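Sat 14:20. Reprocessing the chain from the morning session after the first attempt stalled halfway. Input below, unchanged.
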Amino acid sequence: MPNILSNKLLEIACFNIESCLLAQKAGADRIEFCADYSVGGITPNRADILKAKELLHIPLHVIIRPRGGNFDYSLAEIETIKNDILFCKQHHINGVVFGVLTHNKKINTIINKELIELAGNMSTTFHRAIDECADMIEAMNDIVSLGFKRVLTSGGKSSALEGVAILKNYQNSFGKTIIIIPGGGIRSNNIAQIATQTNCKEFHSAALTQNTEFVNATEVSLLKEKIA
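Finished this time. Tokens:
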């Protein structure tokens, strides 16, 4: 559960089961479970999703992304996304993280609406596909109107720190209707600044400090400490 005193929540992106357990033990409030850090995260295999659910006692959100690259998917890829969302729903996963764009980098409202309806009671997060949108304010309005619970974004910049002014604007403009999660290069040496300047309540980090896909437990603890 999030720290009641600080009212701030730390989500850690984990790319293997070991990292899920390290992050949980170090104080993470929620896990975003992915595979393949080199392409920015894709859907983990189903056996690993079930193993993570079995071992974690904090909320588990699973990224639903069939491949790396852009977010304009083929019909076959959309079917894969739907099947993966259904699998998560059938196995009572807390949330799913996804995002589909059109070929001209707008929110694909038709497909995302179908996916949200398919997700049912699971929490839905629109991931950093938004950072590729041509018009991010239009994209934010679309994401809110579709009914996503959260949006993970760096404000369209290469990192959340670089996009901090934009994130602050999003929090002021949309924060009452959707949870804005700053993400992108967040580490213990900048999370306090980002939290103070944006007034956001949830934060996303991979907590990686070396050339490895394994979470650094000390970094997770420091991240928590900085927003406590």
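Helices lie at 17-26, 46-55, 75-90, 109-119, 136-146, 164-174, 191-198, 217-227.
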